Amino acid sequence: MTYYATQALAIRDQIFPAAYQVRQIIRAKQFIDANLTEPISLEAMAQVALLSKFHFLRLFKRCYGRTPHQYRTEQRLIRAKQLLQTGLSTTEVCHALNFESVTSFIGLFKKYTSQTPLAYQRKKQFSRA
User: Fold this and answer.
1) Per-residue pLDDT for 13 more than 70?
2) Sign of CA dihedral 1, 21, 31, 38
3) Fewest CB within a 10 Å sphere: which of 22, 34, 42, 69?
4) Whole-angstrom distance, CA of residue 60 vs CA of residue 22
5) How far is Cα 19 from Cα 74, in angstroms, rounded to an integer?
6) Phi and psi (nearest 5°) for 41?
7) Cβ proximity of 28 and 64 under 8 Å
8) Contact (Cβ atoms closer than 8 angstroms) between residue 66 and residue 74
9) pTM above 0.70?
10) What is the pLDDT of residue 11?
11) Which residue, 23, 11, 26, 9, is CA-closest to 71?
12) In the chain, how many H helices and how many E strands?
């Protein structure tokens, strides 16, 4: 093996987690996906992955490019978009996805999509017509 190949393998081992750790992170991600409407603590996610919460947080971010909280928020907002397209009101979507309040849901939705849930819903209804 050449010097460069050895160095490349060493860098890979430093940057990427081991295969068993990736499987544990995937298990935790599946747990998050299955429980989008339930409040989940970082400790609970880490426990599913069988890792300390700090190690879990680092590995999750390394694998998915975002923290577990950011990932979960994005997934909940994707689900919120789907529910808004079915004609549910902003309040109904907020409660269905167990957001803390309608105000915080609207603010979060606007932060991620640059529009309010009502504007998003109207835009989608208008584009279907």
Assistant:
1) no
2) negative
3) 34
4) 9
5) 26
6) -85, 160
7) no
8) yes
9) yes
10) 64
11) 26
12) 8, 0
Q: Of 92, 56, 100, 35, whose CA–CA distance to 117 is shortest?
A: 92
The tens digit of pLDDT for each residue in 51-108 reads 999 999 999 998 888 999 999 999 999 999 999 999 899 999 999 999 999 999 999 9
Q: How confident is the model at residue 4 (pLDDT cuts 50, 70, 90)?
A: low
- The residue assigned the tokens 């599946």 is 30
**What's the CA dihedral at 35, 103, 83, 34 to 10 degrees?**
-10
| CB proximity list for 105: less than 8 A, separation 6 or greater | 80, 90, 93, 94, 97, 99, 117
Query: Is residue 102 within 8 Å of residue 88, measured between CB atoms?
Result: no
Residue 68: both structure tokens together: 């577990």
The residue among 109, 117, 95 whose CA lies nearest residue 37 is 95
C-alpha dist (Å) from residue 6 to 1, 15, 18, 129? 7, 14, 17, 59
Structure-token match 């990932």, residue found: 71
Q: Per-residue pLDDT averaged across 38-43, rounded?
A: 94
